[in-house]
Amino acid sequence: MTNNRLIERLPKAELHMHLEGSLEPELMFELARRNNVSIPFESVDEVRAAYEFSNLQEFLDIYYQGMAVLQRPADFEDLTLAYCRRAHADRVRHVEVFFDPQGHTKRGVSMDTVVQGITGGLERAREELGLSSQLILCFLRHLDEADAFETLREAEPYLEHIAGVGLDSSEVGHPPSKFARLFAECGKHGLRRVAHAGEEGPPEYVWQALDELEVERIDHGNRALEDSALVDRLVDSAMPLTVCPLSNLKLCVVDDMQAHPLRTMLDRGLNASVNSDDPAYFGGYMNANFAAVAQSLALEPSHLGELAANSFRSSWLSDAQKQPFLDEIDLIVTEFTAV
Ligand SMILES: [Zn+2]
What we know:
By secondary structure, this protein is of the alpha/beta class. The protein is built from 17 helices and 8 strands. Strands 1-2-3-4-5-6-7-8 form an 8-stranded parallel beta sheet.
């Protein structure tokens, strides 16, 4: 069996995926027609051709443009269910997905529309696929603190559907410390906390996310490797890093996949997992991300099992829910290496 066969068989959890980043060009066109929204592209091929980025900001510009087609609850439901089906086909068995409400409320689409649609999609995925899920509200860090507090206020009626909060969008120039008071308030609401840090931003941003936002996962975290005291801290606390290989390549965080730090992270004892970030834009879902690092970094079957196990260990499932997946992963890797 090849590594790809092992990747297909392993159950996985996805912890770093932006629902709006799973908007495939075909669905973008369908929703544009349905809602009579004009988009600056003539064809699906033209959209795909536009997905060439040299940094995070170039991607974000087109990402916010694409959101314009999402107008009604049914649009968000279709988007969510399409992602869940695609992830499930890669043997993803649990997802903790991000959404960006400010990207919608800013253009006149209400929090109610967004949450109603997404939770409807997640519920259908639970019924149709047996896929369990949690929802994470992300604040856009390029906007100011007052805007984020207003968004939290708008989300208050829906907190039963929202497990936690995150921080995304343009990293450099928008340090985690900008949102320390907001995250403290979210903690008082019983919300779990994660944040993007160390993708393009310096190790200092990872320190801030840990100490000032009190996060329980770091999204990306690549640049933590530049600071050995930080690596020690992350290893000692088994802090999850939700790593996104194809995203890193597409946004030029790494020059080529052979230079990706994932294997170094595992070798240094970091709790890293594999995730797809914005799969419609970055060229692949869960298994494509696994396959890319497996090949480029010459990962062993034991590494692949560790990455899959880390995804469940780092999830917000209960210990009792995690254990059957961890046992299954052990069994599959043992069988695979015995062949
Ligand atoms: Zn992300």
